[in-house]
Every structure is written in structure tokens, then in C-alpha cells.
Amino acid sequence: MATNPPGQAFPNKARVAILAELEKERRRLLNTPGASISLSRPNLKEFRDNAEQQHIAAQQKAALQHAHTHSSGFFITQDSSFGNLILPVIPRLEPES
């Protein structure tokens, strides 16, 4: 029986056979209809946009809580063209006739 150099757990032939089997299984999984596993890395821009949206949502929540506790008015969260996180709501009063 041949001895392997230190640090090698399998002989080269066994290693090649294992790698070939893994490659065959990988190809089978990739060719399976309905396989929805993405092997590519997520887009960095999408990751940043998602993180930014979560940060803005947290800021909106904090601003809304602060406004409700320190003001007697009503406020809502809404995307604003001017960067406002919350907007005051003014109730409509019916004119007295």
C-alpha cells in the first residue's frame, strides 16, 4: 500500500473521483427545472439601496414617535420631494353655514 505525504487525507485518484462526482452533482442540480438557487453574488447596488431604505424607515419611525410625543398635531410618514420624513396632517373643517 502506498503511503501519502503528510497532510494528504486521500490519494490523488480518490480525490479526482470525489471532485468528478461533485461536478456531476452540481451540473445535475443546475439543470433541474425549477431550480431557483442563484450562485451569483447579490448586486452591491441592490444591497446598498436595501440598507438605505431600512435606514430611512428607521428614521421615519423615530421622527414619527418624537412628533407624536412632543406635539398635539397629527403626522404621517410619506415620501417627500423635499426630503421630509414626516408630514403634518391638517384636518379639513366643514364650513359652518
UniProtKB/TrEMBL annotation:
<dbReference type="GO" id="GO:0070876">
    <property type="term" value="C:SOSS complex"/>
</dbReference>
<dbReference type="InterPro" id="IPR031821">
    <property type="entry name" value="SOSSC"/>
</dbReference>
<dbReference type="GO" id="GO:0006281">
    <property type="term" value="P:DNA repair"/>
</dbReference>
<dbReference type="GO" id="GO:0005654">
    <property type="term" value="C:nucleoplasm"/>
</dbReference>
<keyword id="KW-0234">DNA repair</keyword>
<protein>
    <recommendedName>
        <fullName>SOSS complex subunit C</fullName>
    </recommendedName>
</protein>
<keyword id="KW-0227">DNA damage</keyword>
<comment type="function">
    <text>Component of the SOSS complex, a multiprotein complex that functions downstream of the MRN complex to promote DNA repair and G2/M checkpoint. The SOSS complex associates with single-stranded DNA at DNA lesions and influences diverse endpoints in the cellular DNA damage response including cell-cycle checkpoint activation, recombinational repair and maintenance of genomic stability. Required for efficient homologous recombination-dependent repair of double-strand breaks (DSBs).</text>
</comment>
<comment type="similarity">
    <text>Belongs to the SOSS-C family.</text>
</comment>
<comment type="subunit">
    <text>Component of the SOSS complex.</text>
</comment>
<dbReference type="Pfam" id="PF15925">
    <property type="entry name" value="SOSSC"/>
</dbReference>
<keyword id="KW-0539">Nucleus</keyword>
<dbReference type="GO" id="GO:0010212">
    <property type="term" value="P:response to ionizing radiation"/>
</dbReference>
